[in-house]
Structure formats: C-alpha cells, structure tokens
Amino acid sequence: MASEETPHGSHAPSPDGGDGHDHYWYHGDKAALTRRLKRIEGQIRGIQRMVEDDQYCIDILTQISASTKGLQAVALNLLEGHLAHCVAEAQTSGDPTAAEAKVKEASDAVARLLRT
C-alpha cells in the first residue's frame, strides 16, 4: 500500500484502483461498519434517555456494557483488517522501516484499546 505521510502523523489512503477516490481497505465494508455504528449510536441515545428518565442504575449499566461491547467489536474488526491489509502489505513491500512502523501502529492501537 503506497501511502503519504499526513500532517497528523497518520497515513493517507492509497488509491483503490482508478475511480479518482482514495479509500482505505475497509471501503467495501463501510456500509456494515456504518450500520453497526448507527446501532451503537442508538444505544447511547437510549442510555441518555434512561438517565433523563431516572431509570434504575443497574439497567443503565447493562446498556452501557452492551454499547461498549459493540464498540469493541467494531474496533477488533478494524484492527484485524489493519493487520491483514496494512501490516501485511508493509511486510511484503521490502521496506523494513515501513513494516516496523505499521507493526508499531498496530501495537499502539492495541495498547490504547486495552487501556479503555
């Protein structure tokens, strides 16, 4: 995956094949990811309503747990894809520095996920 450094330190997407737009590997899964995130957004709104309506605290905590698990599932999906696509491509590129950088990116992402 050829990429360019962006001002924020992340990498710009590579062209996906000539349609004039740049896409990350998950472009084909975007609709499914969006549906899952909208479902989670609805859960969060439901939690907000529960608090506004003075619902029982354990019921609210149960919904928070479900929302958290949903976000974790999305995160794991993205991490698996990053490993399968971005890290794998960097490993086969022949550029050891790029490969190390992608592995470090993945490792840092895992560390952030575990801190939550």
Automatic annotation (TrEMBL):
The keyword Cytoplasm applies. It comes from the Bacteria. Its main location: cytoplasm. This is Metal-sensitive transcriptional regulator. It is found in: Cytoplasm. GO terms for molecular function: DNA-binding transcription repressor activity; metal ion binding; transcription cis-regulatory region binding. Keywords: Copper, Cytoplasm, DNA-binding, Metal-binding, Repressor, Transcription, Transcription regulation. One of its GO terms (cellular component) is cytoplasm. Belongs to the CsoR family. Residues 1-23 are annotated as: Disordered. InterPro entries: Metal_Tscrpt_repr, Metal_Tscrpt_repr_sf. It comes from Glycomyces terrestris. Pfam families: Trns_repr_metal.
